Amino acid sequence: MEGPQNLKPKPYESSKKSQLTLIIIIVLFHTVGLIGLVMPSLRPIFLQLVPWHILLMLIVIIASHRPSDYRILLFALLIFIIGYGAEWIGVHKSWLFGNYGYGTTLGLQFYDIPLIIGVNWFLLIYSAGVLMQQLRIRSVFARVITAAFTLVLVDLLIEPVAIKLDYWHWTDNIIPLSNYAGWFLLSALMLFVFEKFNFKKQSVVAPVFLLIQVVFFAVLRLIII
């Protein structure tokens, strides 16, 4: 059985107080965003804030990592490129995920792909990867497969909300099975990259972010779908 070098618990890079502050920011901004999105009168305003919310979460996750470890920035850039590239192929070639296109909610687009989508892929991959290490799963293969499957479940939860809020849309409003197969394969690839970067220390903030995302979209699905 193969295990990561960082399975043994190690002290956080930042103080527990700093970690708690970052977790409070995640919970607070998701709570405010949730309230804004479930209220029809406020929804148009809060939809415009979605890209900025994702950018704030990027800052929070990066801040939770060891400041001197430049590899987190290299990893983020690489996942951004892979994620954006995959979305370009998906939208313009209808490969990987199926026939879909993006709406206006995710903000500034380049070749019909929101730039923020690469950031979102990083947040999901990083958080799922760290979660698997926090769970002390010893096998790299098991961590990658379990995390990829977890992200498919997250996508199952997100899809109806994303369509309703004009994140993206599917031809004939039918979500193909290829979308989930594509999510699994792409996630597994990027999670493998995560493992190869071999970060020395990880943070509890990232798994909390993933959990809050699940709660956030679960509540939205119950209320607005």
TrEMBL record:
Keywords: Membrane, Transmembrane, Transmembrane helix
UniProt KW Zinc-finger keyword: no
Transmembrane segments: 20-39, 45-63, 70-90, 110-128, 140-162, 174-192, 204-224
Record-linked InterPro entries: CruF-like
Pfam family, one: Caroten_synth
Descriptive protein name: Putative membrane protein
Organism per entry: Mucilaginibacter mallensis
